[in-house]
TrEMBL record, chains A, B, C, D:
First and last residue of the signal peptide: 1-25
Domain of life: Bacteria
A biological-process GO annotation: L-tryptophan catabolic process to kynurenine
PANTHER family for this protein: CYCLASE, PTHR34861
Keyword Amino-acid biosynthesis attached: no
Organism: Pedobacter hiemivivus
GO MF annotations, alphabetized: arylformamidase activity
Annotated Pfam families: Cyclase (PF04199)
Protein name, as recorded: Cyclase family protein
Lineage start: Bacteria, Pseudomonadati, Bacteroidota, Sphingobacteriia, Sphingobacteriales
Keywords: Signal
Length: 324, 324, 324, 324
């Protein structure tokens, strides 16, 4: 854990140095301006699915072995207009009964039905963020330029509809136990050491194809302190992200909306997500509710995710299922 | 298979009898006007999830055994504004890059992102229809009255957010092979005998908790003959529905948007869906693409469905995953 | 002015009388259950525009004479997502620059543009409510039954697109001066006597075809006390409504969202609007900002209203223009 | 009229010259790349309303004199989802009866109502295009840079909510009579000479503050040949635009969706609108139905436009009223 004090010192130093926030050697190595050597992707120059390439039959079969009890758990949070949402985003769902004004029914069987209309951003609530969601200076995964592949009616490349089913091992890392707090403080950066300590404590070693989900207690704030929930977030920093990526995970995320420390002490805007999605082709999962798993100490499980195939979308509401 | 000739005869007879379409004894037993003895539900008077009660740990563990190859398949069809949609329904998705006008980026790391807004009905494309979707004279599953539980911002009971994960055996019935046609004709009613013949041919016996999906070849029409796709549909009739319900299945559906013969020869409006959802608490799945399974003769598989938890919705876009 | 004390007494009496709130003889005469003699309309059994029939050339020419200074004033309030809205209603507008990701432009002339998408209810902000907006037990103006003319994609009769331009005399009644308060208290019912006193004070006599707008100071609450703004409203009661209708006005309204006292002391739901629209075919205008007119004591003026012709809508955002 | 033959020759010449389409001296003078001397605006460096500054009391009073008969005419076309729309744009309106499922009513007065929800682009149907709608290389009227004033929830400058009422003289130019065709051919460019000839024929001289509307017969295509309606348009070219701007008009437009010849023979993207809005602060009005005026030879009239005040929008649906 990097302490709040350190964070403050780093930021202060930035101001001393003329407004330029110093970045670690690690970060500099990944710096955008320094180089553009992050593409083509190691999965091939025309690849559009990134780390989903790791989802082999072997990964599936290994994950199957985690099912012992025949129990299942939805990892999504329920979504409605009251859920706190990022900036401009909102969600409205309307229930309508077409043709049933004044109690009208249809046919001799008096057919009636409810129909629903959604006016919403796909980024409200539990969501899968595809690798086309975040870019660096308008360049996205595998060097795809926004100028070329983005249209107002959806992306022509990297769309969420191309992501194969995610059937693999899911791993939950309980950061609340690690820090000994029901809700991990908002300015806590998870380091490599933090993650390794939790893995050791939980008896797990990460492996290729894993989905790694953090439990921070942060969902407890929803409806109680939406302001704090949206303004600041605990989460991994760039070092931890790099290490996770090197373990060849397929997706990272958890119970916050940022899935990384926010605001980032370096002054960068979501650098971890940017690194993971754009440079490494790793997916992100937001607002994942792992509380029941943590309660029962289910640290690993069969993770199954099928996302609605909205053509040209780069994110979409989902409900991954844990089976154990 | 009930033949076209029979169908026509039945309808003709209806007109002869003064506009009253004759219904079978079976249907009369289920008739709305005759009685209201279809609730409380056998799952309890306050039950809101119907046949999802059948999804026990045992069902999960049994289904796990179907995974041999470690292969996975998305069962959804991709969705965009061009997909043919039922009546008033439509779907539009917009890709927007907030704050990035004129190529703006954020932070020293030049963060850019794509965000999506959906204006769409949840009933366009592959969807899970909850048991609150269809009612009889404004009364829904377990006797819930629309007057009481429906609001413009969603249902207060029977919402899709209450449906537990569907992890069970999925069964595909290939009706195209049964009828020897790449696309089963639109006026074909699947009878009990038809279904039993296909099950026998495929070497399957239905069991409690199954999800039963029909392959009719109908998806081939999309983009080629959207008009036909929307106007008429092959599918099960009421007798077959009753028989399927008696096998204690959890959900039925397939590659059409109606999941039953449409228009129904009795002149009723979606009587099968009405029976299954409202009276029996059985879920419906529309626009399920089982073509790759049929091609490889994968007649049964582990079926995993996690639906986005839109509070108060009675249907929602999904992408169930077949694992085998 | 009916006092708060009286109101409370009436309501209290209602409870004493077994829960039945006593209504005035006036109201009883208009009672729904007592009779259905309010149609056909006096404008003809097939009429769809109600009091807009009163907008003759003579009315137009008379109103023209009110223009002395060549000054103009928009009577609408600006609309965005922050404006307090009735119950389920909301309004979101998005600015999008299609095809301009990464600063793209089109053509040698480097064309760029802003485009806007609205997801909103037509009843947020200044609006014209057509006579198809409100009904009595699912029956609307001129006896049109909801079961017959309403569809999910708009009404087939009484739509706002059929309303002719409203070019007539506008009259502002300043209730703030009448009551000697910058903001008229929320439980104030404007009686016939109140209106007549204001008219006399302002030197005006109502005439056929007038649009009558009340200034209550209520807009001052927006952004300061949205809760009060939405929960309670000063306004005319049924007696005043009847009297105004008898003056053959075309539209009534003002700077509140209800245009009548709300909640109504009788326990009825918007009885004044119901009476005016459904029974008398008189239009309603909400959130009309007449403050600059009141400031300059412009009590009458040329009123010009052209509403966007949304087919099948019963209300729509507008911006009537005062010219004087 | 520039002939089709000339147009083809110009385009052909462009290809001969290595893909560079030759532009007239006039156009070169206005060329973007050549200079950026088109701001600050002549109305002041902080001006946000452009030619609306010309709408003086004198202009209003002069226009009042055109009212002789007391007749009124809506200049808008009715809008629904079937209206042909520019590219990505669409419009859907839903009629909903909140709380009235199963025929529910509210209160002892059995209150019922229709409510409408719009999911639509403000650029479908008759619309006012504000001067913030179109820019040059992401720079808009008065040098406002998109990077500075555009947000996803609306523009912070140049918004339609700032445009004062347009009360002035409206002038209709009947191009169908000029060309002797019920529908002016799509590739017809209106020149200065064409406009002057029509003005002379109709006995009108343009004056400061006018709104100039062209009648081309093009609305006749709607519902009959939507493809042609959207693909090509007759209209003014750059020379005519410059001349109109020099007459100090406030707005130009008419019965097409482009209000200029489209595609432009120079290969530029809407250069006329770009010039008028961005450089001259002149407003644009699309899909104006002047057919009844032309039928009755009403060439000039009192034009009154009040647009809904959608904050931060650069275009909005309107219905200007002609009074004569």
């Amino acid at each position: 854990m990097k302490t709040k004090q350190l964070t403050k010192a780093v930021v202060a130093a930035g101001f001393v140095l003329g407004g330029i926030v110093p970045v670690s050697a690690q970060n500099q190595k990944e710096s955008v301006s320094a180089k553009a050597d992050w593409y083509p992707s190691s999965y091939g120059a025309s690849d559009e699915i990134g780390a989903a390439n790791l989802l082999t039959s072997d990964v599936v079969l290994q994950a199957m072995k985690l099912v012992k009890l025949g129990k299942t758990l939805p990892l999504a949070v329920p979504i409605d207009k009251n859920l706190p949402a990022f900036r401009h985003r909102s969600f409205n769902l309307y229930n309508i009964q077409p043709g049933e004004q004044a109690g009208n029914t249809t046919g001799p069987n008096k057919f009636t039905f409810n129909d629903e209309l959604v006016n919403g951003w796909t980024g409200v609530g539990t969501q899968l963020n595809g690798i086309g969601h975040i870019g660096i200076n308008n360049v996205y995964y595998n060097g795809n330029k926004a100028a070329d592949f983005v249209t107002v009616e959806g992306v022509k490349k990297l769309g969420i509809e191309k992501v194969p089913p995610m059937v693999t091992r899911g791993v939950v890392l309980d950061m609340t136990a690690h820090y000994g707090k029901a809700i991990v403080p908002g300015d806590t950066e998870f380091t490599i050491a933090d993650i390794q300590a939790v893995l050791k404590k939980q008896g797990i070693t990460l492996r290729k194809g894993d989905v790694v989900l953090f439990n921070t207690g942060w969902l407890e704030l929803i409806g109680k302190d939406n302001k704090q929930f949206l303004e600041v977030e605990p989460g991994i920093g760039m070092d931890a992200a790099k290490w996770l990526a090197d373990q060849q995970i397929v997706a990272f995320g958890g119970d916050t909306w940022a899935s990384e420390i926010y605001p980032n002490p370096t002054g960068e805007e979501f650098p971890v997500n940017q690194f993971m999605l754009a440079k490494r082709g790793i997916y992100n999962l937001e607002l994942i509710d792992s509380r029941p798993l943590v309660r029962d100490k289910i640290w690993q499980f069969l993770f199954v995710l099928g996302q609605p195939l909205y053509i040209g979308s780069t994110q979409v509401n989902v409900n991954p299922i844990a089976i154990y």
